[in-house]
Write a structure and sequence with these properties.
The complex is a heterotrimer of chains A (about 325), B (about 280) and C (about 325). With about 280 residues, chain B is mainly α. Chain B has eleven helices and no strands. In chain B, helix 2 crosses helix 11 and helix 10 packs antiparallel against helix 11. Chain C starts with a strand and ends in a 6-residue tail after the last strand.
Amino acid sequence: MREGLWGRNSLARYGTIRLATAVLVLIGSMALLCALTLIVPGDPATILLGPRATPQTVALFREQMGLNLPLYERVFVFFLRALRGDLGVDVLTSRPVAGLVMAALPNTLLLALSAIGLAVLIGVPIGCYAAVRPGSLLDQALAVLSVSLVATPSYVVAILLLYFFSLKLGWFPVLGAGTPGNFIDQLHHLVLPALALAVGWIGYIARLVRSSLLEVLGEPFIRTARAYGQPERRVVMKYALKLACIPTVAILGVGIGELMGGAVFVEIIFNRPGLGSLIFDAIKNRNYPIVQGGILVVVAIFVLANLLVDLSYAWLDPRVRENLGKARTGGGT
Amino acid sequence: MREVLYRVWKSPSGRLGMIAALIVILSGIAAPLIASHMPNQIDVAARLTPPSASHWFGTDHLGRDLYSRSLYGTRIAVSVALAVTATALVLGVLLGVTAAYAPPAIERAILACFDIVSSFPSLILALALVAVLGPGLLNIILLVTVVFIPQFGRVARAQTLTVKERPFLEAERALGASGPRIMLVHVLPNIIGPIVVLASMNVPVVITLEAGLSFLGVGIRPPLASWGSMLFDGFTYLNQSVWPVLVAGGMLTLATLGFTLFGEALRDAIDPKLRR
Amino acid sequence: MDDNSLVEIRGLDVDFATDNGTVHALRDVSLSIGRHSVVGLVGESGSGKSTLALALLGLLPDNTEGVSGEIAFGGKNLLALDPGELRRLRGTRIAMIFQDPMTALNPVFTLGTQLVDAQRSRHPELGRRELLARAARMLARVGISDPEKRLSAYPHQFSGGMRQRVMIAMALLCEPDILIADEPTTALDVTIEAQIVRLLKELHAEFHGSIVFVSHSLGLISEICDEVAVMYAGKIVESGPVESLFSRPSHPYTQALLACEIDPADAPGERLVTIPGGLPDLVNVPSGCIFADRCPSRFAKCAEEPPPRPVAPGHAAACWLVP
């Protein structure tokens, strides 16, 4: 059993290999994005430019997107340019896409992270309590509410929240992200959007924590801990919870992706700036370079988030570190 | 099969889900019979009215009857969900089983494709595809199918692999059983359970995705009525009337809730070991 | 109460609630555990020996319906203590080694963390570093090489035999008065089994407590125990010093058990001995001697339940055949 930084069971080794896999997947997604232009019905440049297609703009577009090059060369060029931070220029005003995307990104990240934070901060304690007091009022309420909240689409929840708490009650502002520089105002504008995204997840996480915790508490090693006189609080909070959180961490990876999708809706409904509304407006305005660049950044974040989740997973559960061959199932664990 | 459905019926949440799902499906099928108006019948004088005797769910911003529109919206939602799930299932299972039996290079290529498609959040991939393909019913069915193929593919492959390794298959081969026979008699029955569960769990997701795309205006185009586009219309006029939003949102929630509860009960009935 | 006894169990009854009704797992069990002795509990599956072990620890399962009787330890009745007091005894004065080492350790914490936490009740005054040092010393004592490195390893990196040694180390670190070993070798290979038993014998010679050794193997019992109690269907049918019981087995069940042991001296081709019949129904417990149904020597008086009858000093069997 080799020990040390690079031993079979080390986190560093696992992390490096996963990082390499992630980069490969990212390159693959770049290839997919480039290949998309191939399925356009008709001439890509003309179709994608739409009403703005004049011979000059078409030629310029072809040049910039490298549509004259064979596919693999195009991916290569795209990859190299992306490494340099060059994601092309937008069709309307020739501004660099990278700049636009990077300006919009922090807003979306803030939204997504707040939503996750809310979901975890509220969901985990509720799940713990329900596991330790099964059958209680809270537990039963959780069972009923969690399913209905998870099933309702995030945009429906967002609109309903907007209607009741902004339009009707006036507790929260309706539009925008708040005045820049005013932290409290921005927080005020953040509450409903983050809540809209988080609501489904709170119930889901609570139920997941509850069932994982119940399962873990029945395991033999919990009996061992109790047999050695460990106080019940330590048994549950330390010995059981760490193991029980693993499925929750696993779904957070997939969750971030869905959250970024949901962010598109929330940004549009609440009229917030961000990557979601940027990409969407670009689609409406036939500004393909922004669509491509924006989606690439979203995918990169998703891949990075999954990588972090995998690392936490391996950190939490050492048994995983040796099983490097298993591919991550992105579509629901 | 009958036993499974019976078990679903026995659980309270499963029963609720089945009833809700059946209401949705049947109302969609029977839409022309039970609708009170034509879904696209414009009556500007009666725009944005709350529920009344003549308009059971109220009217939208063009005076169209919300009850009738929601029924026709059911048709869209259900048919898209069915078409997408069926196609993704068939293609996914084909790819997955192929991957399990194919030489390592091909298997890795197929898995790599799955990984790449999965590296896009589902809505984002759908948006990317719609940016190049354009909106419309057929396109939406196509591109949403692509989003769901990898899940079916992975489950099919995993299940095939577990069956492949089992010793009794070696015995069968030693006795001269042919490849196709093994696949049909042993592999397929093993796959069906988890695949059916996955399909039923995916139906509400498909409904949500299609409605979401229509909400954004890049999904189903008028004159077809999707709940998503109804929701967007209602949202635009939210400060004048809440009813369009409530109706569209309510139908969406009913459908997704019903199919989700049904799917979970189905999963519990098919494999109690998966029960959470 | 005998001054030389550490634990006195008197009239212990334990009932479990099950789907088929109430199972009377232990009925009127009385046993004495002496200081610095090794007491064996032997019987087949379902005899109640593990239940008795868990009752000593106060960790009976959730579906326990009723417990009555007395377990006298250190001047108190364990059955009358509240959960907090009972918890303070575990890991300080009573420790247990469980049957399956593969599942008894938490997979996501290092051995060091688990060994340190196990000692916290016993030595709340010591810090993590000292507790780790004690753990390393004990690991060496139970025959694990390179103990400092092992402390930062995880359970899944060890074999079953090594994990059981770790469990023994964990138990001994608490310096308990009673160490309960619930079939510690059942899940291990025979060669490893011999090593573990030898280890236990050596350790017992060194430390001051008593061991309760639960097993279904008479061979192991004879190797390690001073006293033994034979259990059948929730009752102790015979008990006494090992030499006396093995040389004069007085209860038909004990005799049958001994006959069942595979003797290497037998010629190949000889039939293996079995005991005809099956375990009685513990929901509707039949009256009279519990072994009567399967006993080759039963007679009329067996319809009345026999009390333990003396065979030799300290050796008693619950059978009317004993004069």
